[in-house]
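Hi, here's the filled form for the chain we discussed.

Project: internal
Contact: R.S.
Residues: 149
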Amino acid sequence: MKINWGTGLVIGMLAFISFIMYFVVTMLSSTEYDHDLVVEDYYKAELHYQEDIDAEKNALSLEENIRLEIKNGKLVLVFPESMKIEEMEGAIYLYRPSNKNLDFQIPLSEVKTREFLIPGEKLVDGRWNVSVNWNTKGKEYLFKKEIVF
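And the returned structure, exactly as it came back:
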């Protein structure tokens, strides 16, 4: 039986579409791949995105900003002398992109000194997104940094 070029073209297209569909179905149905959103209320968070941008600009305008250091297997947040820790309200967020179960936050009310230690036992090796969101005298600030622990 001889196959003309039109039939061959249709067979080739069907084979290609089947190949692509196989991988799409495999990716969507596999439990090995995590399909979680970064933020549960994505649209609600998107509405406040400009506020985050303004808070980051406020933090960048400070003479000194928060520093992150890794010392002896611990993450150290160093607050500058110019910041009055007792007047700050907010939280430290540690976000692990690869596993949402490792995410945690620490309220700034727990910070008592200029150097705040986060024990290495809480931090798994790999990439972390650290953000410190605080309010001082009615002004919002946001510090973000990506680290590899």
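Let me know if anything looks off before we file it.
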